[in-house]
Amino acid sequence: MNNLNKKNKYNNDYIQKKTQRREKKRTEKRDVSGEEVIFIFEKILEDWKTIRIYNTIIQSNPKSHVTKKKVEQISTGNCKVYESELEPQRYIHYLTLREKVYEKHKSS
Fold first, then answer.
1. Which of 86, 97, 88 is nearest to 32 (CA)?
2. Cα–Cα dist 108/91, whole Å
3. Domain span at residue 20?
4. Do residues 26 and 60 share a domain?
5. Taking residues 63-87, what's their average pLDDT?
6. Average pLDDT of the chain?
7. Same structural domain for residues 62 and 21?
């Protein structure tokens, strides 16, 4: 029994570290902050065009790494933001926005 507990502990540690590595890698690869993703979702729901969203982000934050292509990709709802990136209330807001964006994209 003791060996089984050790094995489960190591397995759980491994899974937790793997999840953290994956989250870090995907967040860095995305190059867009969680707040920017929320901004894009909000503007898509207000029927803004992606080029207008892109221009607005670049004008308000010239150091942003967002590209027009990424804005188009995120505008479909295809962007995962992790809980660790946002405050709890903002994360819940993100989840509701993402659902609405998915629904809007499906109906288009």
1. 86
2. 26
3. 1-30
4. no
5. 90
6. 88
7. no
